[in-house]
Structure of DNA-binding LacI/PurR family transcriptional regulator:
Amino acid sequence: MTTEEPPLPRYQQVKRELREAIARREYTPGQPFITQRQVCERFKVSTTTAVRALNDLVAEGVLVRQQGRGTFVADRQETTPARQDGTRSIACVIHGRGPIKAGVVSGVESVCADLSLQMVLFDSKDSLAVQEQALRRALDSGVSGVVLYPVQGTTESAALSEVRRLGIPLVMVDRYLAHTPTDAVIADHFAVGHDLTDHLIGLGHRRMAILWDETDCTSVRDRLSGHLQALRAHGIPERPDFTVLATHQRLDRVERIARLTAMLDHPEPPTVLICSDGYIVATAAADLAHLGVEVPGQVELAGMDDAGPLDILPLTIAAAVVPAEQLGRESMRLLVERINAPTATEPQRTVLPITIHTRDTAVAYLQVMGGRLGA
C-alpha cells in the first residue's frame, strides 16, 4: 500500500522556488536579491514564512547578508573553503545501519547537492579506533567541515582535538559529547522516553522493562531520563531490574532468552517490553516466539525508535519516530553556517521534535504465537 507524500510546508515551497530562480540565473552573485516584502507579495505568504525561507537560504550558504547593503546570492567559490585541487567537500562520519542512519546520510547529501558540495562518507563501524582513523582521513583529504554521528563511548580524542584546533567546523548529529563543547543537532530523546512511557501508562501499563542495545551515549541516557520522569509523574515506582542500563541486544541468544525468562517468570512480570530500536523489536519477537509467549496477549512490545530491518509498527503497540533525514539536513545547515561565519564560536544545540505512532495508525498488526509470527 502506498501513501501520498504530505505537502511541503509553505516556507519550504518558497525556498524551492527561490532556489530554482537562482539556478535559472534570475539572480546572480553580487546582484541584490528579492526582499522580504517582495517575497510576501510574490508568493502571497506571511512575513513569518518569508523570513524563515530567507533565513534558511542564508544558513545554507545560498544567500549572504551584507550589513548596510542587503541580501545577495552567494558566490559559491567564496562561501566555502576549497581544497588545493579546487573541489569543496564535507566529511560525513557515521556508523551502523537502518533507516535512521540512512536518513541522516540522505539529509546531509541533499544539502550538499543543493550547494554543489561533495560529500565524503566514512564508515566508523561502531568502533572508536575506526572513528579516529576516519577523522584523520577526513583531515588529510582537506574537507571544509565534518558531520559526525559519534560511536558510543566517544570521548575527546586526538583526532577530535585536532579538528577543533584547526578550526574546522564540526557538527555532531543525534548525540553529543557531554564534556566537549561542539555544535550538535539531536532528536528530542528525552521526549522519546517520556512520551512513549506516558502513552503506555495511558493504556494501563504499570510494569515496563527496557531492552537496550547501546548504553554509553547521550541519546540513551536522555531516553532513560525521560522514561523515569514519566514514571515519577504518575507515581509509579522505578523497578531497577526493569530499567538497568545494560545491553540486551548484544547478548548471545541463550543469555537473551534466559534474561527474558527471568523477567516473565517474576511474580510481577512486565506487561510491555520497551525496545530501544527496531532491531531489538525483531529480536525480542523471535525470542518470545521461541518461548511460546504470545504478543500481544501475555506481553506487549513498544519501540523507542523505528530503526530496524522492517516496519516495526505492526509488531508494537506504539513506537517513537525520529526525524532522521531532518537531522541530516539541519546538521548540514548548521555546518554551512559555521563555514560561512568562522568567527562565531558559541556552540549551538538544535533539538528536533519526535512523534509517537500507535498501532491504531497501522493497517494491520502481527501476533507472535508459539514459535511463529501470525497476522
About this structure: Residues 79-187+323-352 form a domain with the Rossmann fold fold (CATH 3.40.50.2300). The CA atoms of residues 260 and 266 lie 10 Å apart. The two ends are 16 Å apart (CA to CA).
